[in-house]
Design brief:
Blueprint: H1 9-18, E1 45-46, E2 52-54, E3 70-76, E4 79-88, E5 91-95, H2 101-114, E6 117-118, H3 122-125, E7 141-142, H4 144-155, H5 161-171, E8 181-182, H6 183-187, H7 191-204, E9 211-212, E10 214-219, H8 226-238, E11 246-248, E12 251-257, E13 262-266, E14 291-298, E15 304-305, E16 308-310, H9 320-325, H10 331-334, E17 340-342, E18 349-353, E19 355-357, E20 364-367, E21 373-375, E22 378-380, E23 383-392
Antiparallel strand pairs: 1-2, 3-4, 4-5, 5-18, 6-10, 7-8, 9-13, 10-12, 11-23, 12-23, 13-21, 14-18, 14-23, 15-22, 16-17, 16-21, 19-20
The protein binds calcium ion (2 copies).
């Protein structure tokens, strides 16, 4: 998932917005809205029973207005919520007390009833035929930073410089002792030995793991759980997402972070490749995530640490290369360097859009590569978090192969008259 370098119109808009950022509670601002009472959501034409006959093509997306802006959400008769804009690029929104304490406890109980398992690092166990290396300065050798990044990309492990040097030493890779690995030096190590040792090293040094957490994936498709159904409706209303093309993921991911638990920064969705099916629409392993938005529900308070972190949020000069070379994905060690850190609080929702809207069609557009996100280490106590993804199908069915009879015959070798 190599993030592409791009500047979108949203970055330009964001720059303009910073000029009047940090508005105090603008509850009376003209942009505040009340959720319409019935059915009007995003339907263009309804039948007599209120069933939608015609949906607009545009994918709804809230306007953050400016960092610090508060929007009033009157989405339930008895309750008013306030949505605060935390970042414009990417657009990140926060709603305190979005869930009640009882609702949080209910989701935790669902996870406990199902049973939590250690989160698995699937990238490390998937077979590889060769290692892809990142020789950023094209000098034909890997310095320790380039090797660190190569290991992240190949095995989803997060070593620091001293760890990389330890690996060299144990595997006797750096034969001339210059802290650089040439192609010849790399070729001396078999892939399986290299991989096995790195994974062994990471097991011995859990801080190098991409995440340390336990999780339960709760099937929510067609769930009869009334508490969850109510939360789901609240989310869709808050985001004004009631379009038929929108569906929440079939699973709610509930994560538990114990002391020292963390999750390094990653992007939740994938670039749009129209001919590759969306994972929520296929059973095939060959698929891509089509997660338009992410909803993080904080289910507990945390005594210390455990912030939700966005390393490059609101970063005017973001470049994927700087993110990698600066080791900012490693939230276990460099949490404080993240541009935006959100303190966990029971009941809080943190929401962001993983994709831009497409300027041409109003549909889901390119991935927003500033949405790098993760969880800083819990330094005291424990933390419970739920994640729900809002999916929009961006898969285009390929044209069917023409039947043999339909193939137009061309005269390649016309007979002379
Ligand atoms: Ca190099
Ligand atoms: Ca060397």
């Amino acid at each position: 998932m190599a993030p592409s370098q791009r500047l979108s119109v949203f970055c330009v808009v964001a720059l303009g917005c910073f000029a009047y950022a940090c508005l105090a509670k603008e509850h009376d601002h003209a942009d505040m809205y009340k959720e319409p009472a019935k059915g009007e959501g995003h339907c263009l034409k309804e039948d007599a029973d209120g069933k939608c006959l015609e949906e607009p093509e545009e994918v709804p997306r809230l306007d953050g207005i400016a960092v610090g802006f508060y929007r009033t959400l009157a989405i339930e008769a008895e309750e008013t919520h306030f949505m605060k804009t935390l970042s414009m690029a990417p657009l990140i929104l926060e709603i305190d007390d979005f869930l009640t304490s009882k609702e949080c406890d209910h989701l935790i109980k669902m996870a406990k009833d199902q049973g939590l398992e250690d989160t698995i690092n699937s990238a490390a166990t998937s077979p590889k035929e060769r290692i892809h290396v990142s020789d950023f300065n094209s000098d034909g050798q890997l310095d320790t930073n380039e090797m660190r990044i190569s290991l992240e990309d190949n095995f989803d492990v997060y070593l620091c410089e001293e760890d990389v040097l330890n690996v060299y030493k144990e595997l006797r890779m750096d034969t001339n002792g210059d802290n650089l690995i040439s192609k010849a030096e790399l070729d001396e190590v078999t892939l399986s030995n290299f991989r096995d040792f790195v994974l062994h090293y990471v097991n011995e040094h859990p801080v190098c793991q991409p995440r340390r957490s336990k999780e339960a994936k709760i099937a929510i498709n067609g769930t009869k759980d009334g508490v969850f159904a109510k939360i789901e409706q609240r989310i869709l209303r808050a985001l004004r997402l009631r379009n038929a093309a929108v569906e929440t993921d079939s699973e709610l991911l509930v994560m538990k972070f114990e002391q020292e638990g963390h999750e390094n920064a990653h992007i939740d969705s994938a670039p749009i490749l129209e001919r590759l099916p969306c994972c929520h629409k296929t059973d095939s392993e060959v698929c891509r995530d089509c997660r338009y938005a992410t909803v993080q529900l904080h289910l507990s308070n945390v005594e210390e640490g455990g912030e939700a972190a966005f390393p490059v949020a609101n970063n005017d000069t973001y470049s994927p290369k700087d993110l990698r070379l600066g080791n900012k994905r490693n939230l276990r060690k460099f949490c404080e360097e993240s541009n935006l850190r959100v303190t966990p609080k029971k009941g809080k929702a943190v929401i962001w859009y993983n994709h831009f809207p497409s300027g041409d069609t109003g549909e889901v557009g390119e991935i927003d590569d500033r949405t790098w996100n993760g969880q800083c280490a819990v330094t005291k106590g424990e933390k419970w978090l739920a994640k729900l993804w809002i999916n929009i199908n961006t898969y285009v069915e390929p044209e069917p192969e023409p039947e043999e009879d339909d193939v137009e015959e061309t005269e390649e070798d016309p007979k002379p008259e």
